UniProtKB/TrEMBL annotation, chain A:
It comes from Polaribacter irgensii 23-P. GO terms for molecular function: peroxiredoxin activity. NCBIfam families: ahpD_dom, perox_w_seleSAM. InterPro entries: AhpD-like, AhpD_core, AlkhydPrxdase/COmuclacdeCOase, CMD-like. It comes from the Bacteria. Residues 22-101 form the Carboxymuconolactone decarboxylase-like domain. This is Carboxymuconolactone decarboxylase.
Length: 111, 350
């Protein structure tokens, strides 16, 4: 067993997920592949969204994968960083907006 | 300016050392299949030539740049350049070859003192597509090169130029400080004489190499991005973009090892292996000639000193029929030409 919870080399084994449940695994990979095809959004735009979500989900495998994917597509590091800030802004905004719930509760409970 | 691996006596400048690295490690341990094992599975071993289409001649390893990814290990300190006698032998072949494309490369081929004479003589042979691979900055390097755009035009040369990105930072990081600005100026000068314009017969294509340990993305998407950025910011036009994968040899191999990216890069190449690309890989339609007249399956095999497996090995004994009846020499670096949509000096192949 690895001494670490995350091992970069494990990303290469991702496709093995299908070994223990071929039907569900294959359905996932078919879906995944379809999602990233050119559509109403370009594959480039999707790659940047994936990179931002990879950070908000704090998935090291996805960060590695979509940083490399971005470089391959000619996406600049400035564009990648801006995408991450979009994710960070939503993540922090999502935390902060719950402050309204706190305020509502305080207003209800206090005399 | 940095020196070449050879001038620095770097271990990797030794081709035997490069072959050792490519044959050992993950390939010797069986973690990754060798290229021969891989193509055997699809009954494509040994790789054999198709019809000869391209005669690629390397006029020398001297260059005014020292790019970080260069598979030639070219630079100002490299003195190996083709002599006029070897050029004459090449001209004899150009007059009789079945190949429809002549492709001059280097180094910076323009730095060979007999470059212009050779182009003038070769252009008389009636070759359909006459390519010169120009690094662009040579056009701005010295007054004696300023008229190259006019010279290319006069001989209807097809100019293929390196341009790793449409941003200054990425370009200069790979090719050296100031390269981006000089390249932009050179492209504008080529446009000014008619190169690269829509509908123009004066062909100007760009070559994109990834500026690091990753593979090129979709060639068409990259071409669209390059066209948009270069047109908007610099009023530059060009015809096509060729996306070329960096092969793990010479200076790029040195970079991969030094940056601890070698294994992961080889995994990326093997995972992206595309058997359809093998069918049209560049070595199946090309003969590569070195500055000293030796013959190779491709420019990469030339840099690894893997001469053709034929009784004909030198331009002085050139015999096209005999050469076409040979097995192509392959090794693990060949994964670079078969990854994804494939890679060649003419861009994707699948």
């Amino acid at each position: 067993m690895s001494k670490n919870y995350y091992d970069a080399a494990d990303l290469r084994k991702f496709s093995k997920i299908t070994d223990w449940s071929p039907e569900l695994g294959n359905k996932f990979f078919d879906y995944y592949g379809k999602v990233f095809e050119e559509g109403a959004l370009t594959a480039r735009e999707k790659s940047l969204i994936a990179l931002a979500v990879a950070h908000t989900e704090q998935c090291p495998y996805c960060i590695d994968a979509y940083t490399k994917d971005g470089l391959q597509r000619g996406i600049t590091k400035e564009q990648m960083m801006e995408a991450i800030h979009v994710g960070a802004a939503i993540k922090s905004g999502a935390t902060l907006v719950h402050g309204v719930q706190m305020m509502n509760k305080v207003d209800k409970l206090e005399m | 300016m940095k020196k070449s691996l050879k001038a620095r006596n770097n271990d990797i400048a030794n081709t035997a050392r490069q072959m050792e690295i490519l044959s050992n490690g993950v390939f010797a341990s069986g973690e990754l299949p060798t290229f021969a094992e891989k193509i055997k599975k699809t009954h494509q071993f040994p790789l054999r030539p198709n019809k000869l289409e391209i005669l690629q001649i390397n006029l020398g390893y001297m260059c005014n740049q020292v790019c970080g990814h260069c598979h030639v290990d070219a630079g100002p300190d490299r003195k190996e350049i083709m002599t006029i006698d070897t050029m004459q032998l090449c001209l004899d072949v150009i007059k009789t070859t079945e190949a429809h494309t002549l492709d001059l490369t280097g180094g910076a081929p323009e730095m060979n003192p007999n470059f212009r004479w050779f182009v003038e003589e070769a252009s008389k042979a009636g070759i359909k597509d006459f390519i010169v691979r120009s690094n662009l900055t040579i056009i701005r390097a010295n007054k004696k090169y300023y008229d190259l755009p006019e010279f290319f035009k006069k001989h209807n040369v097809h100019v293929v130029s390196s341009m790793p990105h449409w941003t200054r930072g990425k370009t200069d990081k790979q090719r050296g400080n100031g390269v981006f600005d000089k390249s932009i100026k050179a492209l504008q000068e080529l446009n000014a004489v008619g190169y690269g314009l829509e509908g123009s017969d004066l062909k100007l294509d760009l070559v994109y190499n990834p500026s690091g340990a990753f593979l090129p993305g979709d060639q068409q998407a990259l071409e669209n991005d390059f066209k948009k950025a270069l047109k908007t910011e610099f009023h530059i036009d060009f015809h096509s973009l060729f996306a070329i994968t960096n092969l793990p040899i010479s200076r790029f191999l040195d970079y991969l090892i030094a940056s601890e990216n070698y294994e992961e890069y080889m995994v990326s190449l093997v995972e992206a292996y595309n058997p359809a690309a093998v069918t049209n890989v560049m070595c199946t339609n090309t003969i590569s000639v070195s500055w000293d007249g030796w013959l190779y399956d491709c420019d990469f095999n030339q840099m690894l000193n893997l001469k053709v497996a034929s009784t004909v090995k030198h331009i002085s004994d050139y015999n096209e029929a005999k050469l076409q009846d040979r097995n192509i020499i392959t090794n693990q670096h060949c994964y670079g030409c078969t990854a994804g949509a494939g890679s060649s000096c003419q861009g994707v192949v699948a």
